[in-house]
């Protein structure tokens, strides 16, 4: 998978803008953070990985090239261990709507939320 033709960090809008030959995409910081390819988020084995919640307000401090094959994204919550390969970034672009819906459903199922200042209450019974 080839690199985007242009990468722009929109700090104020809290998103990464990727321009490919065929299309442009805007990936929100929250989406990139909760789908980080880091071992902390993805886990070390097969499965859904760790559900990251409370990242509604997360921003991106900076992005840096990781060799010629990836980006490293530095989030303002201190997370910076995920290496986003060109192939993974394009996957996140192409499957944004589906992945976001899955994330929202997982949050609801586990009684968690996007806003760090709110707590969801899960009723049992």
TrEMBL record:
Gamma-butyrobetaine hydroxylase-like N-terminal domain residues: 7-90
Pfam families: GBBH-like_N
Alphabetical UniProt keywords: Iron, Metal-binding
Origin superkingdom: Bacteria
Entries under InterPro entries matching the protein: GBBH-like_N (IPR010376), GBBH-like_N_sf (IPR038492)
Name of the molecule in the record: DUF971 domain-containing protein
The species this protein was found in: Microbulbifer bruguierae
